[in-house]
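Standup, Tuesday
Yesterday: got the pipeline producing structure tokens again.
Today: sanity-check two examples.
Blockers: none.

Example 1:
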Amino acid sequence: MTPPVVTAVTPVADVVIGKAAVGTVLAGSNVVYAISVTNFGPSTASSVTVTDAVPSGATYVSASGGGVNNGGVVTWSLGDMANGAVSNVTLTVRAPAG
């Protein structure tokens, strides 16, 4: 009898982040950055965290999805993301006043 073969399978997740905002902003007005996080799998992505810096000269206004601003760096703790899961968050900043 041949002994069983044991193969370790390493989970792999392909997580992609996209970021978009309007192209032109008036001085002193708010800019909303939409950030989309997608797990293309095939495995669950564990403890997903996203960070984004407030642009130089801009002022932090708010962040959706539990984002926390710490010295101009916003962090979102998204947790585990299953294969195919999508999470969308926003960062709102005020552009410099000309």
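Example 2:
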Amino acid sequence: MEDEDLTPLFALAISLAYVIHADNKASLQEKARLVTVFGKLVETNVMSDGELESMSQKAFAYVSSNALDAFTKNCMKMLTDSQRIDRKSGVEGKSVDQ
């Protein structure tokens, strides 16, 4: 996947896919939870059912072929400070050092 294909929404889907796939297996029920998270976007016509299904499949495919460290580095380049949750503090855009 090219860096320019990574959007904040897709990065969130990939992040959830990494969590779901943390035990190296993902059941249908676990994958359905990812779809549930984004269901409101379908309800409000921000994305179609097909787009949601495609994003979900691409998120799990990304997880299968990319190391978490590489994904994290790509996100750090793409996300703004306010879109990030700092690992040290758990607060959006804030660091313990700030």
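Quick observation on example 2: The chain is about 55% helix and 0% strand. The longest helix spans residues 49-65.
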